[in-house]
Specification:
Ten copies of one chain form a homodecamer.
Chain A: H1 3-17, H2 21-28, H3 32-39, H4 47-57, H5 61-68, H6 85-109, E1 112-126, E2 133-144
Antiparallel strand pairs in A: 1-2
Helix pairs in contact in A: 1-5, 2-3, 4-5
Chain lengths: 148, 148, 148, 148, 148, 148, 148, 148, 148, 148
């Protein structure tokens, strides 16, 4: 079973059971964004987590197996720039605020990057009388460039 | 004076005075990332803020004027996908974690987007014995799609 | 049922019944462009609207379900620039009149954008003895950039 | 004098005089968006209009001459997809609402297009207690495909 | 029946009957290039023409129906620049002779375009002892830009 | 003197003298489109023609020299797809009518192409009470593929 | 039978019979590269040659028919730049040696091109004690640009 | 002196002296295509050859120096696909005949490539009463893939 | 059996038997990276190696046959720039360290390249108390440019 | 002084003094590839190293300053795929051997990447009677994906 079939099976089971990502995440003791990312095929699970996910969804070992495979990541983004408005906003943030963030990080940490591997991201709702807000917290290890 | 010349003038004055973005931001009562974004030409200042920035840097009215102009944003990203490793990581985060975030936001908020205009982003250092971490907090208003 | 299958089912039923978008829109009390956009899979309906649409077209709950899902939008435009002449004209309008509109909006409203989310668009026929005209009215909330 | 130099001269004079596009448009009896489009080098003026524009701005015959030339249009959009958020929203509107508009126009008018040449576009502010709105009215002749 | 299936059905029937585009065009009183364009799915027919085409080819109402639909045009050219040598030559003509034609048209007609909608194109063989020549005659209405 | 400088010199002299391409073409006994193409740097002249062109325009030997050089052609079209509406229409014609023309040419002439080298193109005004029309006549040798 | 199916049928038969392109070419009195090009669907055969090819391979009239059709050429190269190392080398040769060849051809022949239609290409093995060499001989008619 | 300036200096001197690539090549005992390639900045010379080239052209040591540098090759081809018709034909040959050549080479030599480094290319005029022909002979070492 | 089917068959058998690439490589006396490359369809095997691979995996002659075919290589990378983070890092290394490596190689070896054909690459784990490291050793013959 | 000017100054001084990267690297106790990378503007130096580099080359503090700045990396690669043959080979290695390396690394280390930041690369000459070889050793920390 490849990642595409796995994703379809999970989404169908999730819909049939009327579950949400945060329910599933709660059952398996992981965060909702990671759980969604893994079930959509962009991350890999340990065997233990894979067993838990398929238990919650009443799915078989082939799905659990597929969850543990290391995916070829990012294939959905095959046009380079995403058209979907929700996803495009991240591209726009990079476009408008990227240079300022880069400069500030270099001033604070020196030459290097924020890791996107040793990295976590969470999404929260922030209630606000003028309209609730989406709060996204990214947390990645700073990796300094080696000079050798 | 166009935005490009303004940026060069500001970076030269900032270097000559040995200032950092957070120093300037502190002087003008704004956040460091916004201050850097505006001085690099990707955002526009009010006249009052523009006067404060040029006062801190001992720069003239032509720079203040340029700071208030609405820029053609994102021109640095003319290749579509950024090559710089620090900036590329945001593209990679979109590529790997974007679909999971999108799905989770839709489940929590319905169909719509996180605004990148009614939006703030801050960067913090999180101390960690295994290596300090970069924490980026994005905060944007949720905008639901109108149905009419 | 995914959005692609939903769209095919709706187009087939609409053709079999000899309906037009404005007929369907009239039945469900929505505007024709939004109704077409939703049925073509680029917008999502509330459950109530989805029930009304499928009632008009004698379609089942799987179609109604699919209508309420938040789509991955804009996938038809995978080449970046549309070749279809009717659709290309919008790209050409952006290309020729975009900079003038941007400048005028900034002068009138300040730095920010016209929202494409808190947004409505209608199409009307304007009768004209030299040849009827297409009138497209876009109406989007102005969103000013936050400075923080 | 080429279009680029003409545009710089006009923008400098306009700024020095503290004029806005709607002021200039009022003086020359044209619409603001067209006036901005022409002064930014994306449209050409008649000799009479060119004389009026340069009279308002106290500019010379070389600017008037340049205003009458037929430009190579759309060169600013050399990356295909615009990064600037204000301009990108038009691309997003095409991406999300384009197919619905196309289908509706074909149903109403038959096979053909809305002209982007025999075309006018105006921008208005619509006051609204929840935040003012940008109203963009496009008006183009419907051109049916010839069958021969 | 979609345009792709329609095209396959027409090409198969045309081959089985040993017909050429000019034969079919003669039967239906239209020009050969338009007839081919329509049968290949890049143009739409009136119901009357659609009936005539399917009568010539002994095809059913589903094909006639599909012939009358307004197509999403130009989808074959999804790579931007065509590789096929016969089709590439048109791109090369645009590349080499385009600027000269543009300038000449503007001098003769003013700012505007040759319509590609109110437009006809015919292909003829010109006999020549050194090798016959392809003569392509394009005829499109000149559309002047509106100034408003 | 390179082609770019040559073009600027010719356009300036042409403007100063108030000439049009067809006037110059008449003086040198060539067609207007070819004359414009050559003066814009997309074709090369013989020495005799180059002398005639510079005589008409009172330009020096460096311009004549540059006119005879074989250009690196098509460099203006560096974005692949032209944004200028007048030039884009040729791309659109290729996109919509290209497949029909290709098929018709193969039926009439066999496998091969219309040459874009042994090729002439002329533009004429066709008067028409509903609006004058642009008539473009392309004439290229048919080149059959060799089989060896 | 389309070109893709034709190609699969030919490759399967060729493999089953243990033939090489030069064997088949020898049987039908054509060159090996042309024979391979035609059987891979990038060229068209005369009916006589098509009959000979299918006779050698024991294939039916549907394959012979498909061999005579004029293909939409170059579709395999849909990414613009080929990734396959053997094919990429031709792109690299164009990139490194193209300008020198162009200049030399113009000096020797004047403005024009080497035809890729009235064109033959052969591949030979050149034995060499340091490692055999691939010799590719291209032979195309020089086509001078018309000036009209 | 960089390669761009070197190229300009060489082309100016060559023109002033009325030399052709084959004259210069004859003086320095190299082939004309290589000589042109090197002088246009796409190859590097030994010091001895560089001295000979500058001697023929009466140019200084800075040009000789620049001739010996290893260039960043292929920068002229920055659009991916060349627009110039003479150069495009090589791309077209790759597109149409590439797969056949690849298959034939693999059958004859096994898996590997024709080197574009251990490689020579010559251009000759082949006289022909129907029009002279360009003969291009490429000769590259076959490099088999290592299996390890 | 084409390369895609071959790859699926091999991956399924490998998974069913619980083998790793280094186990298979050990059995057939080849290196693990080459073995994986060949089984994934990017390299070709000799008949002897193909027999050994299929023996280890209990697969048939059709798989062995497919293993010996020369593949159209690199087709997975059809977007130009890989999105997968593990694969992207090689692109990033080229982007950041490529110019330095190029310059150093030219200084040490002269004008030419490191072959990617007469080439081997191995991957090793380097144990390290701060976190194990991936060591990749590339070894390719230096190929000097011919001057002829 | 920006990175571009810094690079020119360093290359000019290095040439004037007849130094090689390994000489400079030896003087400053760093590796040659890193030294070249930093001097070409793709990496940043500490102040101490910057002082040493400028001391070796007799350059001023403005160069030292520029050496310490964090660069916008990878800007030379603005076409996406490099044309230069030496640099292209790294892209080809990614294209052909990338999937095999990815799979092998995942089998050995689990899901994650080889860091391109905590990363070193060295180039060595390996003498070989059949032609010397380029040996490139890459060494990067393995970074496992976090699951949270």
């Amino acid at each position: 079973m490849d990642k595409q079939a796995m994703k379809q099976a999970i989404l169908a089971a999730k819909k049939a059971k009327g579950l949400r990502w945060d329910h599933i995440a709660g059952e398996i003791n992981m965060s909702p964004v990671w759980t969604a990312t893994c079930c959509l095929g962009e991350a890999s699970a340990t065997e233990e987590i894979a067993q838990k996910i398929t238990a919650v969804l009443d799915l078989g070992d082939d799905v659990a197996d597929a969850l543990t495979e290391c995916p070829m990541k990012g294939q959905w983004l095959d046009r380079g720039i995403p058209n979907d408005p929700m996803l495009y906003r991240f591209y726009e943030i990079l476009s408008v605020f990227g240079p300022g963030i880069k400069d500030y990080v270099h001033e604070e940490f020196g030459d290097g990057i924020m890791s996107a591997i040793d990295f976590m991201v969470d999404v929260e709702r922030e209630e606000n009388p003028k309209g609730d807000r989406v709060k996204i917290v990214m947390n990645g290890k700073f990796l300094p460039y080696v000079r050798w």
